[in-house]
From TrEMBL:
Protein name (record): LacI family transcriptional regulator
Domain HTH lacI-type intervals: 1-54
PANTHER family (alphabetical): HTH-TYPE TRANSCRIPTIONAL REGULATOR GALS, LACI-RELATED TRANSCRIPTIONAL REPRESSOR
InterPro entries the UniProt entry points to: HTH_LacI, LacI/GalR-like_sensor, Lambda_DNA-bd_dom_sf, Peripla_BP_I
One MF annotation (Gene Ontology) recorded for this entry: transcription cis-regulatory region binding
SUPFAM superfamilies, per the entry: lambda repressor-like DNA-binding domains (SSF47413), Periplasmic binding protein-like I (SSF53822)
SMART domains in alphabetical order: HTH_LACI
Keywords: DNA-binding, Transcription, Transcription regulation
Length: 328
């Protein structure tokens, strides 16, 4: 970067360094040429001095989707805390949807701030596809992200989490377990369906019809109304705690006792889940661990640019058993 500025301005590296550090022994004409070169190259003046001199801005970018949802919001928070603990500032771009155009715009914006690397929170299949053709030259790590091309990934083991909670319900003597899923485009929803089906298959049970949801309590409520009217339903695994809240509300309105008639379990362990009525059995995701590992992988990528190889790290989930599940 410093070489580019020096070449365009027609000065030496030392002169660029003196200008950026406000050295008094620089002629006004030379200072103007250097700053004009910085502007023409698209660098931002408030960050460029540190970036050009040290080749590191000590700033990391984060691209995220829909941070109003508990999982993505908690992931971003974990990443930010881990970055600050490592001595880095964080610049966050939140997108309504993560597609190729959105990711490219976000990367361009962060590149203007001379970030050293970027973490992309990519829980949707469309986001994973957008990571397949990232421009070279800037280290990137994806949280979730599926295969994500050649990008390193960090994720919670969604399949194992769903398997744990389904096996818990089967172990309580329930003949089968129904499932209220998340949106079909979400990799997390897909992984939870896979784990649920695998646990049922291993136990020799057929998987019932999947009831689709969209992560919202409203969609859980609607699924709960359907389940309350079905015969033989004794256990339900809901793909996130917000939808589980809606299921519990529907069951209460329909006079379905939980866990007396139907056991209910969720996923995420949101802070409110232990205060649901009854307290919710769920799967805890360690978002702090996801943040730490994401930053570790990204910093390693920054430090070993030419020797980099793709890495995929999986953070284990934890089953949290509370009063919403009981023997059949």
């Amino acid at each position: 970067m410093m070489a580019d500025v020096a070449r365009l301005a027609g000065v030496s590296h030392q002169t660029v360094s003196r200008v950026l550090n406000d050295h008094p022994n620089v002629r006004a004409e030379t200072r103007t040429r250097v700053m004009d070169a910085i502007d023409r190259l698209g660098y931002r003046r408030n960050l460029v001095a540190r970036a050009l001199v040290t080749r590191h801005s000590r700033t990391l970018g984060v691209v995220s989707f829909d941070t109003t949802l508990y999982g993505p919001a908690s992931t971003v928070y974990g990443i930010e805390q881990a970055a600050r603990a490592a001595g880095y500032f964080v610049s966050i771009v939140s997108l309504k949807s993560i597609d190729r155009a959105g990711v490219r715009d976000a990367l361009d914006y962060l590149a203007e701030q001379a970030v050293d690397g970027i973490v992309v929170v990519a829980p949707q299949r469309s986001a994973a596809r957008a990571l397949a053709d990232l421009p070279a030259g800037i280290p990137v790590v994806a949280v979730e992200g599926g295969e994500a091309g050649d990008v390193s990934t960090v994720s919670v083991d969604q399949v194992e989490g769903a398997r744990l909670v389904t096996e818990h319900l089967l172990g309580l003597g329930h003949e089968t377990v129904w499932h209220v899923s998340g949106p079909s485009d979400w990799l997390e929803a897909e992984g939870r369906i896979q784990g649920w089906r695998a646990a049922l298959s291993d136990a020799g049970r057929e998987a019932p019809e999947v009831l689709p949801g969209d992560w919202s309590p409203r969609s859980g409520y609607e699924a709960g109304r359907r389940l309350a009217g079905m015969e033989g339903v004794t256990a339900v695994f809901v793909a996130n705690d917000q939808m589980a809240l809606g299921v519990l509300r529907a069951f209460a309105e329909e006079g379905v006792r939980v866990p007396g008639r139907i056991s209910v379990a969720g996923f995420d362990d949101i802070p409110e889940s232990e205060f649901f009525s009854p307290p919710l059995t769920t799967v805890r995701q360690d978002f702090a661990a996801v943040g730490r590992r994401s930053i570790e992988v990204l910093l390693r990528r920054i430090e070993t640019r030419e020797q980099w190889v793709r890495e995929a790290f999986v953070v284990p989930p934890e089953l949290v058993i509370r009063a919403s599940t009981s023997p059949a």
